[in-house]
Amino acid sequence: MTPSPKLVFITITGTVVYLGLAVLGWGGFAAFFSHPALTVVAIATLVMSVVASFSSGNLSSGEREDRDNRWVIAALAVIGLLEAYLPAYTDRKGFWTLDGDSVRWIGVVLFIFGGALRILPVFILGHRFSGLVAIQPGHTLVTTGTYGVIRHPSYLGLLVNALGWAFAFRSGVGVLLTVLTIPPLIARINSEEALLHAQFGAEYDAYRARTSRLIPGVY
């Protein structure tokens, strides 16, 4: 595996900014790390960032890219920044919060599970995984394992991870922001599937016919 220096930089920088905004929203390091559940979330975030840095994922436009879909990256970035700060802030202020400290720990479990599901496909796809909607050199379909059940496990992981973050802060606003993540993700999925159909034709159609997009047997 040869990590992309650009992707490593973006991953690490993004993680620092994300956690920094959460700490700021909560009112400082001492207050943030006084909560065991939030401490676990912070540690898990750092661990996942380091692990992701060792993948072969990239930001290459490859041999063929759907450039019209790049707006999704900007949309998800804006939602991500809001999701980093607002759940922590609303938790501290007691605004639209979910009752019970157990909600935080449910959030921790969802956050870690979703993060693992988000990262695992990056390692499975290797150089074929790009932050852009693109066909890479030597691109082939992966149709086994998790991909034998759902076609976009990484996006499902992103949603579960985001929901877990919201629950860790007991934040109704965080749940709403997770819901707002769905439209740009669906647009991204539509773009990816159109590109894969154009590249692989009947092979991709057959694969698509026997699998679900995100939730087995549902969607």
TrEMBL record:
InterPro entries: ICMT_MeTrfase (IPR007269), Metal_cation-efflux_comp (IPR052527). The keyword Cell division does not apply. It is a multi-pass membrane protein. One of its GO terms (cellular component) is membrane. The keyword Nucleotide-binding does not apply. One of its GO terms (biological process) is methylation. One of its GO terms (molecular function) is protein C-terminal S-isoprenylcysteine carboxyl O-methyltransferase activity. It is found in: Membrane. The chain crosses the membrane at residues 7-32, 38-59, 71-90, 102-125. Keywords: Membrane, Methyltransferase, Transferase, Transmembrane, Transmembrane helix. This is Isoprenylcysteine carboxyl methyltransferase. It comes from Caballeronia mineralivorans PML1(12).
